[in-house]
Amino acid sequence: MTEFSEAERAYLKTQRLGRLATVDGKGQPQANPVGFFPQDDGTILIGGYALGTTKKWRNLRGNPKAALVIDDVVSVTPWKVRGVEIRGTAELLTGPHELGPHFSEELIRIHPEKIHSWSLDQ
């Protein structure tokens, strides 16, 4: 799947924190918590403070493949989790945007190539 279902779109709008996985030049994975913003065009924007100075930014300059996982725990007893994993290509952007003044001018736009979700109907 390369487009979000209605259930996935609805879920993503209720969440604010995800984990972005990138790979460095030596092939080592890195995962970091990030703020994300689903866009009407089906992409995901990721912003941050001084984002252009981060290892994830440098990793994506060398290898634009990325995965973003957004999930939460619905219940502990019984154990129920739900979430969305988005695999795709990252586009590095620099310039003015409307995410807010606390974000640097650098943004990461994830173009989904594979979307997998679980337990969103619960």
UniProtKB/TrEMBL annotation:
Annotated InterPro entries: F420H2_bilvrd_red/Heme_oxyg (IPR052019), MSMEG_5819/OxyR (IPR024031), Pyridox_Oxase_N (IPR011576), Split_barrel_FMN-bd (IPR012349)
Domain Pyridoxamine 5'-phosphate oxidase N-terminal positions: 5-99
Taxonomic lineage from the root: Bacteria, Bacillati, Actinomycetota, Actinomycetes, Kitasatosporales
Molecular function as annotated in GO: coenzyme F420 binding; oxidoreductase activity, acting on the CH-CH group of donors
SUPFAM superfamilies: FMN-binding split barrel
Source organism, top-level taxon: Bacteria
Keywords attached to this entry: Oxidoreductase
Gene Ontology cellular component terms for the protein in this record: cytosol
The keyword Methyltransferase is annotated on this UniProt entry: no
Protein name: Pyridoxamine 5'-phosphate oxidase N-terminal domain-containing protein
